[in-house]
Amino acid sequence: MSSLTTSIPTGSWILVTGASGFLASHVCLQFLERGFKVRGTVRDPTQSSWLLEGRFKSYADIGAIELVSVPHLGADGAYDEAIKGAAAIIHTAYVTNIVPDPSEVITPMVAGIRSIMNAAIRESSVKEIVFTSSALTASPLVYRIDNGIIGRDSWNDAVLEAAWAPPPYGMSHAMANYPASKVAAEKEVWKFVKRNDLHFNVNVVSPAGMTGEPLNKKHIEGQANWVVHAYRGNKAVMDALPASFYGDVKDVALIHVAAVLDPEVKDARLQSWGHSAHWNEVLSILRGFRPQKEFVDDYPDPHRLKVSLDQTESVTLLKKWSNKPDKNGWTSLENSIFENITNPYLEG
Q1: d(C-alpha 279, C-alpha 283), whole Å
Q2: Alpha helix locations (H) across 54-148?
Q3: 87 with 37: CB under 8 angstroms?
Q4: Range of weakest confidence among 36-50, 70-84, 186-200, 220-234
Q5: 3-class SS of residue 276
Q6: How many helices (H) and strands (E) are present in the chain, helices listed first?
Q7: 12 HSE (CA, 13 A, CB side)
Q8: What percentage of the chain exceeds 70 in pLDDT?
Q9: CA 259, CA 7: separation in Å to the nearest integer?
Q10: In this entry, which stretches build a coiled coil (predicted)?
């Protein structure tokens, strides 16, 4: 593996919250492959036992990966036990409920930040924390309008205001609550950094859409598996998001790993959006891989999102920490989509 200097020694324990998720499972695997030990928090260890099997089994057999139950991320002291002895924390866990009431989504997300930060403050072993945020914290990513220039101080405050608008709560609130919870959670992170004399470093990674290899069947289903929506012709989802940015899940995971291990990355807000694309580009790639399959028709007037951002920091980390011989930065959208659709979990 890499001979680069790391901020924490090989063999250290890494706490990964929400470990069974699409991104988090790749984060776990990459740390294990680099010689670190992983403690993953999940709601129910019995339903996440696949993290101890298959590609993870050899690591589980030597005690390099273990699962602990944290059923409620916003509960007081939720991470007090799990954090013991950890040198670094990757906090990917988030509230998955799609409900109209913002207090059921935003409130526990912010409480989860407070819980894990307070636990880290009390645990002297912690040296690095990386939080998974979202491109939506910096921009609404709205189609056909100019989303502006994204910088260090860019915030999507409008979605937070929309989510907390007075009741009655309807589906418009439900759609706003996820991005609003990400805005509120990341702002809470930086409040902690500003107000406390911390003994650990904090970085944030903000991905947009993610594509690439699923490590479990559940990663194929759900609102966020963009390639599968196009593969299956799910127009209801496609029509709502005609263009976005897409990064390969392994690349985004590696940026998280690098944000922990690279001693030069301090207080970073890493926009890690990947490639700008619209559905016609995705459909063209899919047709190339599956010429016998019928896909939905192209959109008549496609456009990419109008937004300007600098991803240099993220690309630099990919090139520095990648074990690929070419080290070109982002995995191509073609290669990522290929891994999305050539796996044992995709049907039809």
Answers
A1: 6
A2: 57-61, 106-122
A3: no
A4: 220-234
A5: strand
A6: 11, 12
A7: 21
A8: 97
A9: 10
A10: none
Residue ranges of the domains in the chain?
Answer: 13-216+248-275+308-330
| Beta bridge mates, 146 | 306
Residues 6+ apart with CB under 8 A from 300: none
Q: Identify the burial level of 84 via C-beta atoms within 10 angstroms of its C-beta, where 0-12 means exposed, 13-18 middle and 19 or more buried.
A: middle
The identity of residue 240, as a single letter, is A
Confidence of residue 348 (pLDDT cuts 50, 70, 90): very low
| Both structure tokens of 115 | 């819980």
Cis peptide before 168 (omega within 30 of 0): yes
Kindly state the average pLDDT of the residues 12-25.
97
The whole-model pTM stands at: 0.96
CATH of domain 13-216+248-275+308-330: 3.40.50.720
**Cβ-contact 71, 43 below 8 angstroms:** yes
- pLDDT greater than 60 at residue 177: yes
In sequence order, the β-bridge partners of residue 128 are 88, 201
